[in-house]
Structure formats: C-alpha cells, structure tokens
Specification:
Number of helices: 6
CATH superfamily of the largest domain: Metal-dependent hydrolases
Number of domains: 2
Distance between the termini: 20 Å
Structural class: alpha+beta
Radius of gyration: 18 Å
Oligomer: single chain
Organism: Halodesulfovibrio spirochaetisodalis
Helix content: 10-25%
Number of strands: 16
Protein name: Polymerase/histidinol phosphatase N-terminal domain-containing protein
Order of helices and strands: EHEEEEHHEHEHEEHEEEEEEE
C-alpha cells in the first residue's frame, strides 16, 4: 500500500490495533559468516525481550526459519558484487535490506550482482528495499550520488544502525535522510540492531501500529509508513490533524520538529507537542525525541 505522506499514521485501523515491537536487520550462523548465533538462539534472544517480530536478514541468503514465539518477516541483506567476485561474496558495496512476503522473490534477488540488474528485474511487484547503514566505514558506505540514485527505488533508509556504534563510520544517517527528503525523495526511516550475536540485540527497533502481528498485517503497516523508530523512547500517540502535527509521550522529554536540510523548527521539553504547519515553508516536518537517559525516537516525515 502506498504511504500517505501527508500523515503516515492515518491508517484507519480498528480499536483492536496496537503497537508491535520489531527488528528487521539481524543475522545468524551459518548462513551469515559474520554471525556467531544460530537462528533458534537469535529468535529466543528477541523473544525474551518481548519483541513481537523480527526478520532474519542473512547475507545473500534467505533463511527460512520458524518460530512459535514471535512473527518472522521474510528478508535478507543483499550487496553488489563486482569484477571476479564470487556470487556469494559479502562485499562492502551497496548493502540493501530486501523484504517480501514471497520467498521466491527474495531468492531471485540474490542472483543479481548490481543494483541496476536488481531493480530492473523487480519492475513488477517489487520487494521492499531499505538502504542499510549508509555511513558505515570511512569513506562512507554510500557516496551522495549513489545514495540519491538508489533512493529513487528504495522504500526506506536506516537512519540508525546500532552495530555501527562499534565500527568505523557513524551509526546515524539522519542528515542523509534529510538531504534525500529535501531533494524530493519519499523515503521512510528505520532503526535496527544489525545483530550478529545475542549481545547485539535489543538496542534499536521499530514500533509498528498494526491490526495484528501477522506477516501480512505487519508488512502492510511497515510499507505504509505506520511506525516509528526507537532506542528506548515510547510514544503514546502521533499523527496529524488538518495542519497540526502532534505527539504524546508517557513522560516529559525533549521534542524537536525537524524540517528541510535538518533545520530545527521548534523544540520543547514536555510530554506533548502540537506544531502548526500552516505557515511552514519546509516541504516536510519530522519529529525527534530525546529521553532523559539518552534514549531516542524518530517519526516518519509528514509532507506538507
């Protein structure tokens, strides 16, 4: 379903809908050589932390795991391969999270070695693409030109990747996100663990507002933009009524309104905020929350 960019949280759900906690970026062994945890133990680690869903997104491999503890969304992490690199090479080029309810779509995606081939082959009924850790390594994983080019096909970008806190580069990509949004790209923001072992879990997640925790309902809500990113901040409510964007928290925190090219348009320390967009010259606004202990939350953009 297309995103309602005026208000991504406007899906008409019944009163039984609620927020579900999940992570779309995690790896297991032996499918991902960089991981040191089995699929079973990975699922158990998230289940013990009251997650509702995850995706086991292994490198260039669709892992068909099963669980009675939480919902599993089909996905994998793709990367481009150049020159004489073997088809199974986990290179440092162009990592994309790829998600689809159709396992065959994911298996087919692994065969393609370049982004051009990947996107061309998925011209009809494409999967959902997320640009992974844009600022991993030095120089950054994606140069600006490539980022803008791929953003035209991707549905999302990782704006926070917890694993990169321990790697070269930056875990954050909110400035890159704002540059893409300011250039007219419609792209959702994601936060993830990028877990490779049990201690990597539970550091960054998305909270999805859905009718039920089934793969179909969760995938529908995610691709519609009805979620927020968090490292610990909880939102009670968020949305837009006419020209006013609003947010409600269970406790006071610093709430910022961010606009074009990362400009801060408003800031308050409170448990609620209402921002009148009627005179706003930015093409979009998004909300950013900082809690007392360093926790964070990011909303999706509201295009005006």
């Amino acid at each position: 379903m297309p995103v309602n960019w005026n208000n991504p949280y406007a899906l008409a759900y019944p009163s039984t809908s609620r927020w579900y906690k999940g992570n779309l970026h995690a790896h297991c062994s032996p499918a991902s050589p960089c991981a040191s945890i089995s699929a079973e133990d990975l699922i158990s680690a998230y289940s013990k932390q009251q997650y509702d869903f995850i995706s086991v997104s292994d490198h260039l491999h669709y892992t068909s795991a099963e669980s009675t503890e939480l919902t599993l969304l089909p996905g994998l992490e793709w990367n481009s391969r150049i020159g004489f690199m073997p088809d199974s090479s986990v290179s440092y080029q162009h990592h994309l999270g790829i998600y689809s309810l159709e396992a065959e779509t994911l298996k087919k995606a692994v065969r393609f070695r370049t982004t051009e081939e990947l996107f061309a082959a998925a011209s009809t009924n494409p999967p959902f693409y997320i640009i992974n850790h844009p600022n991993w390594l030095e120089p950054a994983h994606y140069d600006p030109a490539t980022l803008h080019s791929i953003a035209g096909k991707a549905g999302g970008i990782e704006i926070y990747n917890a694993l990169v806190e321990e790697e070269e580069g930056s875990a954050y990509a909110t400035q890159e996100w704002d540059r893409l949004l300011s250039a007219g790209h419609r792209i959702l923001g994601f936060a993830s663990d990028d877990a490779h072992c049990a201690t990597d879990t539970g550091r960054a997640w998305i909270m999805v507002y859905a009718q039920e925790p089934t793969p179909e309902a969760l995938f529908h809500a995610i691709t519609s933009g009805c979620f927020y990113c968090s490292t610990g901040v909880v939102l009670n409510n968020i949305g837009k009524e006419k020209d006013t964007v609003f947010i409600e928290l269970p406790e006071k925190a610093q709430i910022s309104v961010i606009g074009k090219n990362s400009k801060q348009l408003a800031c308050t320390v409170d448990s609620t905020l209402q921002f009148d967009c009627s005179a706003c010259t930015s093409p979009y606004v998004r909300l950013y929350v900082q809690g007392n202990l360093g926790q964070q939350a990011w909303s999706q953009p509201f295009f005006l």
